[in-house]
Amino acid sequence: MEKQLVCINCPMGCRLIVSMEGDKVCSVAGNVCKRGEEYARQEAVEPLRVLTSLMRIEGREKPFSVKTSAPIPKRLMFDCVNEIFAHRAVAPIHVGDVILANVCGTGCDVISTQEVL
Amino acid sequence: MRTVDLVIIGGGSAGLSAAVGARKQGVEDILVLERSPYLGGILRQCIHNGFGVHKYKEDLTGVEFAKRIADEARALNITCMCETFALSISPEKVVTAMNPSSGLFTIQARAIILAMGCRERSRGALMIPGSRCAGVITAGTAQRYLNLEGYLPGKRIVILGSGDIGLIMARQFTVEGAKVERVVEIMPYSSGLARNISQCIEDFDIPISYSSTVTQIKGHGRVSSVVVSKVDEKRRPIPGTEFEIPCDTLLISAGLIPENELSKSAGIELSPVTKGAVVDDYLMTSLPGVFSCGNVLHVHDLVDHVSAEGTQAGANAARYLRGEVETSETVPVESGFGVNGAVPQKVRRAGTGKVDFMFRPRDKFPACRICVDVDGVCAATYHRPVLTPGEMCSFSVDRSVLAKAKEKIAVRVEV
Question: What residue numbers bound the domain in which A90 lies?
């Protein structure tokens, strides 16, 4: 099986052709640098994304901004969004504070990117 | 009237970087004027990541980047006046401003750095016909409502324009529970970064129509639908291609314009191409002692570049205040084939070191060279694997190469 991807590492936008056998990557073609191959090998098997969103604070009107501490599997993005929406944080909050540990079993935490005093 | 060595207009990433740059070069008396109650400028509403990869070697969100840069300025005890609106700058460098605590006041500056940023092109500028109903807002306004105020401004969204802000908002609206019905782009390609097309549009299967535009807005009280038409190669709508999309909100993401009203009040020469000030290689405008940096000079893609330009403007203002910047003879820089709005627009003959140039490519050029012509003769070339309109191109030239110029310097792309 073949998967086609566009590399997002630089403006070149190389068209990557990934040959797959089941869930395994056999080869990557179309890339001009090593970053393209690394990206394709991950993207074809399990695409990863950093999730950024907003969370409500107990007793406050305005939300604050959060992110995952590392890229999470794309397929779990909306599960994580639902966890973030369901949670109410408690001020004071500092940049880097862990708000939800190991969100949806991803091994990543949801951390604050904003200071709320 | 109070006298201040260096007045910086704008407390966003450009202005704060300029303040830090000037302080590190020994300027003691610095005053930053910021019209909002907070420092950090537009970054405060950018909750997405992708900031600071060059400056901090980390993938930060805009909010985190803003805090770092504001903390740097605070650590250096730089005086910042928030909620302070600069009304005008005179050719004698008198700044008139006002705020709730002092009312109207004037400051005599010895040097000024313009760092006012840019604003979005609005519905009025695009002249979209149709109903004047609620629900037509710029992408940046929607970002502010959502991220700073906590309101989702619509449930069914159409986005006009596929610049980076529009793409980022398409993703965020989807994540926050709204439905993005379609992105409509008048050009045959997106001006946004490939990363954003992939991760904001394709990740969420959002439909995108190229060579198309919104030709009518319908609705009473609130938007109920928009009409989209295909356009020909001259961007004129093609009759018979119309289709209607039901929606409650139209987001406009159709480009940014430097905010230069203050520069005009000082009589500073502006470029019709970049819509920013005409500057020399010290980032100094036509008014000696007034510098310009960041998105008010020309619209950048990355805050890292805004910040670097701010730092440079700050350092140059410090040199000016020490009397090290003379008003010496300059040579004009022209934008040749493939080059749009090269900055700086003039270069001093005297001096040492390198001169940094930036421009926006007019088209996508694979495997090309940037040529610098001195009086019509190619004096330096720089190879690039690819240039695209979505990414600003930058390169540095040895001044010794440019110093020989008698009439003009030209920057062009050779394919």
Answer: 52-112
